């Protein structure tokens, strides 16, 4: 008799945005795995058309409240490179600093509030706080440090108002930045403790085999700029992205899936960044990684929590370094005159590569836009991982399997808000 | 002891930023979580508690039939329903579709548009169900969110002004950038709440908190024009994050 | 500017939405209050609102307030059980010149407006022998909204009491209609009458106009005005009515002072 | 000499506040040294515009007034009135008492009058504002006479300037001819004592003449004028004037005029509550242009922009006399300059007076 099991989660919790998951098992074999995004579509590419290029950072920020700085940065990168704007070093430092703020905030959120409860058997951080208030307080303090940095450089944590094509509206003073040194030093300590704490979790042995894609930039751990590189040896400028990657629209989902142009599944995000750019980490971050038992590469989605921890250490370290070398610019922004043509930009959102492309006319009106967020690039990789995880654990009861599937998904910190342009776990056993 | 009030957080079409504001209240989060039973807050917990809910915070706008039905259920299960953010109070940036051809929008984003079912409009929650309080902003101000939550838990009116951004700008002692630099600023017609953030960063307000209580956009537009905004520029600045809020819609469409 | 803690001693429900509280100071003596004066009442953490004193005038002792629950603060005050602490500042404002009145007295009240007039009635009862006719004309929305039922019957033994409602249900045998319609039934000599009026602004205006028409001197028609108040002591600016500050110069004014101001829309 | 003055004041325990350039305007803030003064700057002002410009000289006080006024320190935009802890029993209420001694350097004649007006409002009645009283106590005022009036100034019309006539501890007149120097006059015993400790020499007749002449020149160069004759009567008699409808079309109801006005004193209270049972009451600047300002249960008493503008202007120029015995306007021009759309109180008065006069003429004919 054919046995059919369906395991589903109608609303994935502790991911940003709304999605569901379905897994169908037939006679103990995985028949079908599906990550569904039913976040209603918001049509950003379409509503950007006809807007001024100067509005792109403000409008695209609204795609995602979790990583608005990533959207703003990829947008300004694309438009500035098209218009030939030379960004002065202090302005670039401020951008990277702002981005460090977002990494700290977003990683602290994911590690403490979304991911760690899975390892510790809690429904969420609020529940965890009842038993381990100090730990949650540490996570919140870290998160706050990131937020405060964003609030100073960007004006506010969510949808910063200070970012513009060409730079900023107002450059913070060295004195304002210095006030963040002490909190960042404390945050760096907390980040180190985070890595040690998470290193004590139990990790199932897992490796993903797909191609890893991330930005790389000589001399630094790429965040706000870089060339697109992959573990398979790709090394291209953001302008060449479309030649090597394509987006597909899949029924059942309002998100688009990305593949390499030859149809390959790839993964971006912390694992990719760590594996490709390990050597560029700061000595303290490298030390933390080593202590946590991480080698020079990491392909284990469960251990992504350690990698995020290491990146937390790095982001604090880097923010301190940037504050130290910052000198107030003569002007917070350079004048950017629109140039007709197509501009390409990429940056490393906390969840991975975020690619923007704009075509504008000589007046600066956006003629069309394309935005590829990390979650749509990772969706196929997540599904592949899910399939593999399920096939290895078909002996589990539905509840256990469902929890494992959800955790597998959360390992990737999928951001559904971003992907709309993701998910309920349904496991169907036939 | 009476049971703790149940707090629920709901999401419709949005960027998640407004509900993230609750988690961004790092200093108060655990106190709030201690004072209420978090009955539904998917971004933060997989725990779910049945309704009815004492306080529902609703983020996002209504863009699908399914969501139009879901908000009615949320309303029915909620004693107090508060909408948070520009999406929920004014349709959000996605309401720009209200002024365009949606089919064309869909085909611009999705290669196989036939898979997408969506309403032609993005509408605020209040267009579908009665709302007890609207908290403005794109995104909302987290301190105001705290005030709303604490106020409703204590049955009081939140101390949230609906005056202009200028009132906050002056309370902060900022120099008016419209008067002193000639920078176009929507502050005089925009709802207070951000604390006059943009003027503090030497930038004109672009209206992300939506219209203030008595917005005289007709009197402001000529000033914006004289400061160098083109007709199209005026149209754009009013038609961004609160495009579907009536006074801004009027100003954007010139009447 | 700092409220003084008072403890709720008694709390009685008058109507579906109105309660009368007596409050005693948490420490020390109670204030001495003239009829018509008001207190600024704080429900801690909720807010502060002006409420007239509805208890007997001029004696230091517990403060009596009759409050209609219309919003957050008034609801919180009405919900304060005995033992609960509220904050009080005051008394503030001027008084009904009830002691200065000689001849006849006409008290006209609409709705919750009877609360600030109760001390007038009580004072008139104390001075009953010195005065001529004393008449109370009182209107409310429905019979269920009428305040001070038993007490009013008590009053009716010494003074004339006429009651009307805007809309009556079954079982109501009394008058139906607005207060002004009942003014003519009051047995007072208009030329010698001092009138004390409190209720919605529009009701006060029509009442005053009708009384003037009947021959009551505008100088002897007294109204208690209401405006937003945040301080109660003339410092916050909210209660302006043209040239006056209601908390400082009022709330009680003669119609002679008010007539011109009440004519101006949205003043 | 100015640096010595600042040092002397600081050594006497004052927090010294004065003009400095920030964000394209001359604002009032903590003053560390005389070099932080707006040296060589002036302002050009008109309805809805303000620009800083370079002067040909090194004048320290060669400007009119900026967006700030001293009310920012005497009547701050947000102060905590008290706090209490709710613990079931009677709450323990603690009042905050400001104890800073403030010294204002660079106070204009119109501003002296504005301070006097707020003194009458907050200290002159039966009930005194504790917070204002504490801040105002022991204020040390260094007035500086105007020699460069602004494009929107009309103190001459309001009889409040440009010469400081009292209400100060020290009054300075900046003399730019020849050697840069100040003519100083003490207006109080405290002022005289501070003056004693400063490097100085006796003023010559020529010094006095130069100082007087600069003030007289200022008098003749007012940017605006307002016919102040019986404004109280004029406005009380014109509460239904069509001009109110006209101005309502232009007015943004943004409240900038009330915030910049050095005499506007309206405030609202906000109660704050934390989840641990702490309660605080804060006093914040309010504006008669808000709907909540005149809210009573059921709605605002002044729902129209017409009635809100009318309230502001008739109060300022008219009913202030009834309430506090003087005009509420000192002719500083801030409400004109800092109104984004440049609504001009002098023009509004003139428009009402013009039509009123027509009516009177008609009555005479
Ligand atoms: C001199 C005076 C005496 C009064 N005496 C009484 C009385 O004896 N009994 C009684 O029930 N009511 C009385 N009121 C009215 C009472 O003050 C209001 O009903 C109360 O302020 C409503 O506040 P709320 O927060 O419950 O309602 P909301 O409608 O939620 O009001 C919100 C806020 O607006 C203000 N406000 C609203 N209505 C009024 C109002 N009518 N007057 C002043 N401010 C207002 C308050 O600041 C209040 O907190 C009196 C008002 C005044 C001015
Ligand atoms: S800068 Fe903008 S918000 Fe501030 S006062 Fe001027 S116009 Fe108003
Ligand atoms: S100033 Fe305007 S645009 Fe800027 S944050 Fe405030 S409301 Fe939004
Ligand atoms: S009304 Fe205008 S001119 Fe008069 S004192 Fe106030 S701000 Fe200055």
Shape of chain D: globular
End-to-end CA span of chain D? 63 Å
Q: Give the helices and strands of chain D as they follow along the chain.
A: HEEEEHEEEHHEHEEHHHHHEEEEHHH
DSSP strand count of chain D: 14
Based on CA atoms alone, the radius of gyration of chain B comes out at 19 Å
Average pLDDT of chain D works out at: 94
Any low-confidence stretches of chain D, pLDDT <50, length ≥5? none
Mean pLDDT of chain B: 88
**Most extensive contact:** A-B, 71 and 65 residues
Describe this structure as you would to a colleague:
- The complex is a heterotetramer of chains A (430), B (255), C (267) and D (365).
- Chain A has 15 helices and 15 strands.
- Chain A has 430 residues and is α+β, with helices and mostly antiparallel strands.
- Chain A has a single domain, classed as Orthogonal Bundle (Cytochrome-c3 Hydrogenase, chain B), CATH 1.10.645.10.
- In chain A, the strands form 5 sheets. In chain A, strands 1, 2, 3 and 15 form a 4-stranded mixed sheet that branches. In chain A, strands 8-7-6-11 form a 4-stranded mixed sheet.
- In chain A, strand 2 and strand 3 form a beta hairpin.
- The C terminus of chain A is likely disordered.
- Chain B has 12 helices and 5 strands.
- A 5-stranded parallel sheet of chain B has the order 2-1-3-4-5, sandwiched between helices.
- By secondary structure, chain C is α/β, with parallel strands linked by helices.
- Chain C folds into 2 domains: 89 residues, Elongation Factor Tu (Ef-tu), domain 3 (Beta Barrel), CATH 2.40.30.10; 121 residues, Nucleotide-binding domain of ferredoxin-NADP reductase (FNR) module (Rossmann fold), CATH 3.40.50.80.
- Chain C has 6 helices and 15 strands.
- In chain C, strands 10-9-8-7-11-12-15 form a 7-stranded mixed sheet, sandwiched between helices. A 6-stranded antiparallel sheet of chain C has the order 4-3-6-1-2-5. Chain C has a two-stranded antiparallel ribbon with strand order 13-14.
- The longest helix of chain C has 14 residues.
- In chain D, strand 11 and strand 12 form a beta hairpin.
- Chain D starts with a helix and ends with a helix.
- Chain D is an alpha+beta fold and 365 residues long.
- Chains in contact: A-B, B-C, B-D, C-D.
- At the A-B interface, helix 1, helix 5, helix 6 and strand 9 of A face helix 1, helix 2, helix 5 and helix 9 of B.
- The structure holds flavin-adenine dinucleotide (FAD) and iron/sulfur cluster (3 copies).
- Flavin-adenine dinucleotide (FAD) sits at the interface of chains C and D.
């Amino acid at each position: 008799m054919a046995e059919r099991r369906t395991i589903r989660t109608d609303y994935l919790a502790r991911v940003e945005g709304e999605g569901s998951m379905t897994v169908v098992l037939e006679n103990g074999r995985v028949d079908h795995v599906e990550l569904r995004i039913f976040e209603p579509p918001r049509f950003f590419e379409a509503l950007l058309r006809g807007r001024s290029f100067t509005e792109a950072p403000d409008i695209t920020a609204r795609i995602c409240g979790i990583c608005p700085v990533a959207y703003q940065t990829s947008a300004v990168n694309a438009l500035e490179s098209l218009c030939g704007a030379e960004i002065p070093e202090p302005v670039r430092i401020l951008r990277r600093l702002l981005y460090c703020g977002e990494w700290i905030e977003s990683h602290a959120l994911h590690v403490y509030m979304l991911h760690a409860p899975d390892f510790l058997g809690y429904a969420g951080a609020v529940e965890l706080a009842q038993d381990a208030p100090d730990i949650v307080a540490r996570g919140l303090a870290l998160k706050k440090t990131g937020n405060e940095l964003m609030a100073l450089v960007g004006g506010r944590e969510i949808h910063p108002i200070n970012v513009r094509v060409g730079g900023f509206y107002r450059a913070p003073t060295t004195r304002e930045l210095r006030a963040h040194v002490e909190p960042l030093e404390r945050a760096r300590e907390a980040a180190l403790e985070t890595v040690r704490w998470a290193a004590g979790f139990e990790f199932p042995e897992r490796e993903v085999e797909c191609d890893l894609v991330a930005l790389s930039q000589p001399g630094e751990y790429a965040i706000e700029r870089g060339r697109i590189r992959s573990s398979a040896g790709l090394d291209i400028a953001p302008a060449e992205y479309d030649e090597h990657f394509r987006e597909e629209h899949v029924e059942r989902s309002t998100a688009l899936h990305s593949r390499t142009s030859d149809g390959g599944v790839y993964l971006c995000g912390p694992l990719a960044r760590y594996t490709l750019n390990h050597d560029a980490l700061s000595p303290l971050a490298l030390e933390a990684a080593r202590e946590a038992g991480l080698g020079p590469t990491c392909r284990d989605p469960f251990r992504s929590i350690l990698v995020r921890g290491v990146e937390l250490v790095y982001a604090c370290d880097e923010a301190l370094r940037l504050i130290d070398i910052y000198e107030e610019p003569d002007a917070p922004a350079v004048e950017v005159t629109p140039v007709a043509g197509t501009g390409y930009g990429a940056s490393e959102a906390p969840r991975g590569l975020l690619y923007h492309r704009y075509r504008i006319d000589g007046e600066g009106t956006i003629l069309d836009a394309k935005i590829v967020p990390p979650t749509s690039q990772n969706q196929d990789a997540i599904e592949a991982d899910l399939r593999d995880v399920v096939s290895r654990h078909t002996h589990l009861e539905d509840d256990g399997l469902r929890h494992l599937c959800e955790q597998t998904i959360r390992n990737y910190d999928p951001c559904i808000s971003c992907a709309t342009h993701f998910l309920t776990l349904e496991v169907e056993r036939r | 002891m009476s049971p703790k009030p149940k707090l629920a957080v709901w999401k419709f079409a949005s960027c998640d930023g407004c509900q993230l504001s609750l988690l961004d209240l790092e200093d108060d989060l655990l106190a709030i979580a201690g004072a209420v039973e978090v009955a539904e807050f998917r971004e933060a917990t997989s725990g779910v508690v049945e309704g009815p809910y004492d306080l529902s915070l609703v983020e996002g706008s209504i863009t699908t039939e399914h969501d139009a039905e879901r908000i009615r259920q949320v309303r029915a299960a909620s004693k107090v329903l508060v909408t948070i953010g520009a999406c929920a109070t004014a349709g959000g940036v996605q309401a720009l579709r209200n002024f365009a051809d949606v089919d064309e929008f869909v085909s611009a984003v999705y290669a196989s548009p036939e898979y997408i079912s969506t309403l032609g409009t993005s509408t605020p929650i209040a267009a579908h169900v009665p709302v007890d309080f609207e908290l403005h902003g794109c995104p909302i101000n987290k301190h105001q969110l705290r005030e709303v939550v604490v106020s409703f838990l204590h049955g009081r009116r939140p101390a949230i002004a609906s005056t202009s951004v200028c009132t906050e700008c002056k309370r902060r002692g900022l120099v008016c950038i419209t008067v002193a630099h000639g920078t176009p600023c929507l502050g005089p017609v925009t709802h207070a709440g951000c604390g006059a953030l943009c003027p503090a960063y030497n930038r004109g307000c672009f209206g992300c908190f939506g219209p203030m209580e008595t917005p005289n956009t007709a009197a402001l537009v000529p000033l914006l024009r004289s400061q160098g905004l083109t007709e199209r520029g005026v149209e754009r600045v009013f038609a961004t994050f609160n495009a579907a809020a009536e006074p801004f819609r009027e100003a954007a469409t010139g009447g | 500017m700092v409220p003084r803690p008072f403890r709720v001693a008694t709390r009685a429900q008058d109507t579906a939405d109105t309660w009368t509280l007596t409050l005693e100071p948490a420490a020390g003596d109670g204030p001495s209050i003239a009829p018509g004066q008001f207190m600024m009442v704080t429900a801690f953490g909720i807010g502060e609102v002006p409420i007239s004193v509805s208890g007997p005038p001029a004696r230091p002792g517990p403060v009596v307030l009759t409050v209609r629950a219309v919003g957050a603060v008034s609801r919180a005050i009405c919900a304060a059980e005995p033992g609960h602490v509220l904050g009080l500042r005051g008394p503030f404002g001027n008084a009904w010149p009830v002691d200065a009145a000689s001849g006849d007295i006409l008290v006209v009240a609409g709705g919750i407006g009877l609360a600030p007039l109760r001390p007038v009635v009580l004072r008139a009862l104390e001075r009953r022998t010195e005065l001529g006719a004393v008449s109370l004309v009182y209107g409310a929305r429905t019979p269920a909204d009428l305040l001070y039922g038993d007490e009013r019957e008590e009053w009716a033994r010494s003074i004339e009491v006429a009651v009307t409602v805007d809309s009556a249900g079954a079982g109501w045998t009394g008058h139906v209609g607005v207060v002004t319609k009942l003014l003519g039934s009051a047995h007072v000599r208009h030329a010698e009458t001092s009138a004390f009026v409190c209720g919605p602004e529009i009701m006060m205006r029509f009442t005053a106009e009708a009384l003037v028409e009947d021959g009551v001197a505008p100088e002897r028609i007294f109204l208690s005005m209401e405006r937003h108040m945040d301080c109660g002591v003339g410092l916050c600016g909210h209660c302006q009515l043209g040239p006056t500050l209601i908390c400082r110069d009022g709330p009680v004014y003669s119609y002679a002072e008010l007539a011109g101001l009440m004519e101006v829309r949205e003043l | 000499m100015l640096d010595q003055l600042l040092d002397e004041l600081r050594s006497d325990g004052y927090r010294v506040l004065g003009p400095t350039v920030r964000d394209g305007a001359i604002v009032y803030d903590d003053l560390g040294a005389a070099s932080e003064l707006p040296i060589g700057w002036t302002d050009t002002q008109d309805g809805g515009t303000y620009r800083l410009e370079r002067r040909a000289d090194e004048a320290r006080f060669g400007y009119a007034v900026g967006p700030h006024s001293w009310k920012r320190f005497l009547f701050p935009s947000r102060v905590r009135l008290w706090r209490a802890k709710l613990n079931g029993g009677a709450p323990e209420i603690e009042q905050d008492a400001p104890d800073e001694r403030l010294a204002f350097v660079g106070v204009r004649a119109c501003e002296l009058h504005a301070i006097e007006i707020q003194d009458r409002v907050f200290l002159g009645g039966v009930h005194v504002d504790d917070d204002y009283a504490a801040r105002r106590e022991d204020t040390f005022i260094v007035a500086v006479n105007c020699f460069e009036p602004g494009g929107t100034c009309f103190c001459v019309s309001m009889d409040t300037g440009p010469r400081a006539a009292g209400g100060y501890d020290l009054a300075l007149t900046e003399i730019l001819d020849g050697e840069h120097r100040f003519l100083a006059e003490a207006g109080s015993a405290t002022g005289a004592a501070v003056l004693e400790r400063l490097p100085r020499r006796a003023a010559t007749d020529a010094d006095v003449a130069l100082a007087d002449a600069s003030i007289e020149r200022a008098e003749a160069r007012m940017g605006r004028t307002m016919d102040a004759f019986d404004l109280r009567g004029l406005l009380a008699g014109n509460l239904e004037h069509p001009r109110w409808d006209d101005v309502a079309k232009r007015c943004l109801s943004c409240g900038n005029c009330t915030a910049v006005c050095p005499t506007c004193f309206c405030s609202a209270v906000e109660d704050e509550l934390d989840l641990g049972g702490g309660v605080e009451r804060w006093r914040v600047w309010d504006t008669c242009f808000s709907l909540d300002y005149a809210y009573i249960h059921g709605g605002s008493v002044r729902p129209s922009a017409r009635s809100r503008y009318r309230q502001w202007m008739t109060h300022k120029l008219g009913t202030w006399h009834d309430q506090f015995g003087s005009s509420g306007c000192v002719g500083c021009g801030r409400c004109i300059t800092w109104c984004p759309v440049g609504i001009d109180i002098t023009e509004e008065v003139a428009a009402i007076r013009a039509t009123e006069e027509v009516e009177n003429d008609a009555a005479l004919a």
